Amino acid sequence: MSALAVEQRPLQERTDAALARAAALLAEPSSSCTDLPGVVRLLQGRLSELGVESERVREQLAARDRLHERYALRFRALADVHGAVDRLRELTAPQ
Amino acid sequence: MSVASPDAGSSSDRDALERSLVELLALERELTELALMRRADALERVADTVRRLGELPGGEELPARAAAEFGQSSEFGRVVISELDGSELRAVAVWERDGDEGQLLERLRSEPLLLEYPLHEHEVARARTPRIIDGRTERGAHGWARQLHSRSYVIAPLVADPEAIGLVHADDGDRELDELDREVVDTFANGLSGVLERAVLRHTLELHSAELSAAAQWMTGAVRRLDDIAGESASEALVAAEARALQSLTPREAEILRLLARGHTNRQIAQQLVVREGTVKYHVKNVLRKLGAAGRADAASRYLRATATGVAR
Questions:
Q1: Which of A2, A12, A71 sits opposite B75 (nearest CB)?
Q2: pLDDT per residue as tens digits for the range B76-88
């Protein structure tokens, strides 16, 4: 198992604990609050109902979008390289 | 503080909800970043593995090295590389993190798989696309999974111009494999396909080169023997006839014959001379006709013989 896989365990435990706290705040059973994006949407909806506009939440969302964009670019470049290699293989394959 | 009824909308309730959301968004970002880093890291390690395999000279030990290198650089506990032989699938290399690889390979070799429905191996080879398979389902428990007791596994095809020539099977004990695992095995299989294709091509070129060299030597010897037996006249007549034929070639045809004698394909000649492959084919046809050669090998041996006797350069 790689170092990154090992690193994921405590992070997942922290996430589970945070989800349990969010479930209590939302007065929902813990068992129905295990899906992180789903709970995020629930909290966003509840804050919206209360008319709360949070700068900190906006910052977090912007940071998440930047992260996705950064890696999307990287993986797109990687996919392009794979595509180019495949075409090269076709061109140079023995007839 | 009770925040179980945030509809009440007190300031502390709103703060608690906001804090919770910020915390979860931060955790979501960390998890996403870690997952993306894992993907990048896994693909980078596969690329390194394929690069190392590409530097090997090829040969029969290549599949075993490939299985071991991939297993050691990935998160899989077991890797099986097999080759397609008609409608049979035969294991050629096994790597296991814990276990007796030799014994397992013997066991798999003794029972080649007949590729037919419902085997997933059959579908992967036919469609040439990788799959994650749940080994606990009735269909998923067939094939190598039956002998390996794989709970969850990935199969990816080894493809060469453009047929499937083998498969890579990877699993990791009780771990449920995911999309990243599928992508990693597929990337490895794709890279290994290229390495195998190059190794086969290199071997074929070496064989052709050796055959041409042997033919040229034999022909040179034959000419010398003709000289001995029939005196100068027979040899001179043969050499003179071939010299005339060679001299009748245009400079372009002579250039193409020289490259052809070095074992180049039409495509390689076209690339080197920066012309279309069809143009090379046209010239090759003319060369064969002018030399009265039966084929490319015959034309090449005539050229090499002429080179050896100083008629051609």
A1: A2
A2: 999 999 999 888 9
